[in-house]
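Teaching soon. Got one?

===
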Amino acid sequence: MHHHGYLWTGPKQRFDDEALRRPPHPEPPPVGSRPELIQRYREVVAEFPVVDLPPLETAYWLIKSRTLVRDTWDEPKEAAAWLAERLAEYAPRFASDTERGTALAAKLVNSAAERLGWGGDVSLGFYLERSAYLSLALVTCSPNRATPELACPLR
């Protein structure tokens, strides 16, 4: 078991585009469907794996491009340390004064290390200044507890 780290930051409006944050349905639209439905399905099939937007379900990071993996760790504490570094890096830009504090960051990092230790995933999101959003995820891999059928993106 190991853990992959993912980071996305960008306009909140783009983050809210849920169509590109959902994996495509396993079955294409039936024959005779509206052309715009078929076209949208094709777009999602082509774009979901490569678009850098965070998926709605954390485990689905594993089916995205391997280039989106920021780092990989064997130990939960190493992954949690990366999370701590990212929280410290972005804290000055957090929209909420409460989220800028070190006490909350310490709780989040400790909780992340514990969750990763039993095979869970971690997904955090923060509003940043100027209508931006930060998404951080740590995903347990080989296997993922929520979706064990998903293969490791780096192997």
User: Anything to note?
Assistant: The radius of gyration is 17 Å.
